[in-house]
């Protein structure tokens, strides 16, 4: 007489935390590089900036660094940075929405969506020295577009008041990565617009304008405001592009901060920490608004 034994597959070994019955998954090892990166390059530097903002050169506590932020020159730099950020965020959000609407709801051929989103993903991260050089080679005094307009059409844009190394020129440069970033953020919101909403509005006799004014824009408004807030923070914290393009000819907060840390004029690292702390506060508020509005928008779409 033969006896049959049933084979059972033993479960994969699971690591347990010592002294407790809770399971500790090895999946945490997968996120350890990210947590380590965030700790070394985000959390610890931010803590150092915050602590350094309230320290003297000898290490004592002081509020003088924060008080120095209210100097006229520093307030002017903050105001210029805020104006550039507002202008580039507003234009970037507006043009980004129009482009996203064109290929999501505007009836453009479907094949254009993938290349446009791919380009937007690349262009939204194209900044710094390469972007500054590209715009100097295109819109500088001897740039390609400048010479074409001057020699072929008799239009001297610099004679008309344009200057790449100015408020308008820096805003134009920022739009190169602001518009693609807006496209990437707004596209999912437009994808979430249900066709049934427009059909129901049409059945009730609403025109296209009434549909957008009463139905579509109220739903998209939190997403648009969130995109604007994120673009503002993205522009306000940009330093490499501004410094490579304008040098010290345009006094904005990132360039002023770079000068204080590097010691180009009067080195005061703790004033630099205070400047960075002020930037953290401004960008933190903008990002907080973005997260809150993004959550509201996602609730509407669901």
Automatic annotation (TrEMBL):
It is a multi-pass membrane protein. This is ABC transporter permease subunit. It is found in: Cell membrane. It holds the Pfam family BPD_transp_1. The chain crosses the membrane at residues 26-47, 59-80, 87-108, 128-149, 161-190, 210-233, 240-261, 273-293. The keyword Transmembrane helix applies. PANTHER family: INNER MEMBRANE ABC TRANSPORTER PERMEASE PROTEIN YDCU-RELATED, INNER MEMBRANE ABC TRANSPORTER PERMEASE PROTEIN YDCU-RELATED-RELATED. Coiled coil: none annotated. Residues 78-290 form the ABC transmembrane type-1 domain. Keywords: Cell membrane, Membrane, Transmembrane, Transmembrane helix, Transport. Belongs to the binding-protein-dependent transport system permease family. CysTW subfamily.
